[in-house]
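User: Just a sanity check before I run the rest of the batch. Below are the structure tokens for the first item. I only need the designed sequence back.
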């Protein structure tokens, strides 16, 4: 079977890129079609001989300022010629689902989310992306075009997979398509469960506004609790201004150093709403509970009062109350670790291979 992989763009490293690496492992001979690739910003080793980039790669500044090129991305993704492949597997949160394949090609899409900034986050995107009056005036027209393209592009997919029931409902709402849930891969064996800790709380995320790191900072500062923040992003300068003596910014931390940071933490703080959220599972693999905002995919990965607990409002006082409650409880390392093992990468690879085989058999019978 001739197989190709598709990913939106490789310009940063996060949960979506971890899924792509797992797919590259499962299908070692498959090329990877992606709009853009930035080696320095991706920060992980990847077999560049397998990458096929679009014409956007050659536009000056496109890799660093990719967010300014959404109107060109539909055209760019449709330029990839995939007619010679039997199976195309896209891992996408935006444009990757829009590839054009022939009638005899099966397209399975692992959809991380319907394109957020044209659907449920469109108003916030217009408000926060730029204060320019010109942008504010014309952005809604551009988003309307991308929204229409996104909906019709979504209908090209043969079979949808996704990472949580939360996202599955959104795919049904915006694309009118059903999606089977397969939790994303977590390398649980990288982490050693540990009951002891070094007395700090931990946050691991990109420093962007919707992650609400400010809540974690304010809560820990007011409680006098030590907080370590792993990650970088455009909000860092603002967050440093909010932070006090109890907060330490660690910036980008290589993957091989993360297990040690999880092991030393009292708990992971997860103040944002995410489609899934790999970091609570990583924390659980290290035997550490998570204190999370009660929304999104975290509800599906955290067992309340067994592997973590929730707070109900995205305000510092709600998180502070949850931290106080957490500190009065007893947390069993083995129970927490067992929860993480449900999301191990080996299970993801096995489940995905089973689904691909089943869908291929069904597809070939239909044609």
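Assistant: Here's the designed sequence for the first item:
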């Amino acid at each position: 079977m001739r197989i190709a992989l598709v990913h939106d763009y490789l310009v940063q490293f996060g949960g979506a890129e971890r899924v792509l690496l797992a797919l590259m492992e499962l299908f070692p001979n498959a090329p990877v079609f992606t709009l853009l690739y930035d080696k320095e910003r991706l920060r992980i080793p990847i077999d560049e001989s397998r990458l096929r980039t679009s014409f956007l790669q050659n536009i000056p500044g496109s890799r660093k300022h990719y967010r300014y090129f959404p109107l060109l991305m539909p055209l760019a993704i449709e330029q990839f010629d995939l007619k010679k492949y039997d199976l195309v597997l896209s891992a996408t949160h935006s444009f990757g689902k829009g590839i054009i394949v022939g009638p005899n090609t099966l397209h399975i899409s692992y959809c991380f989310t319907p394109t957020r900034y044209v659907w449920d986050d469109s108003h916030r995107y217009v408000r926060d992306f730029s204060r320019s009056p010109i942008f504010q005036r014309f952005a809604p027209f551009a988003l309307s075009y991308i929204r229409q393209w996104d909906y019709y592009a979504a209908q090209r997919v043969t079979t949808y997979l996704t990472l949580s029931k939360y996202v599955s409902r959104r795919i049904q709402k915006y694309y009118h398509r059903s999606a089977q849930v397969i939790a994303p891969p977590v390398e649980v064996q990288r982490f050693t469960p540990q009951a002891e800790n070094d007395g700090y709380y931990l946050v691991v995320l990109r420093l962007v506004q919707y992650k609400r790191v400010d809540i974690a900072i304010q809560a820990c500062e007011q409680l006098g609790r030590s907080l370590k923040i792993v990650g970088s992003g455009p909000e860092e300068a603002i967050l440093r201004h909010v932070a006090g003596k109890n907060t330490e910014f660690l910036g980008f931390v290589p993957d091989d150093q993360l297990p040690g940071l999880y092991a030393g933490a009292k708990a992971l703080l997860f103040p944002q709403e995410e489609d899934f959220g790999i970091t609570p599972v990583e924390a659980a693999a290290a035997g550490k509970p998570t204190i999370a905002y009660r929304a999104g995919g975290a509800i599906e990965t955290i067992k309340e009062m067994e592997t973590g607990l929730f707070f109900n409002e995205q305000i510092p006082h709600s998180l502070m109350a949850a931290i106080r409650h957490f500190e009065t409880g007893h947390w069993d390392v083995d129970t927490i670790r067992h929860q993480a093992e449900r999301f191990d990468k080996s299970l993801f690879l096995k489940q995905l291979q089973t689904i691909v085989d089943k869908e291929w058999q069904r597809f070939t019978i239909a044609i």
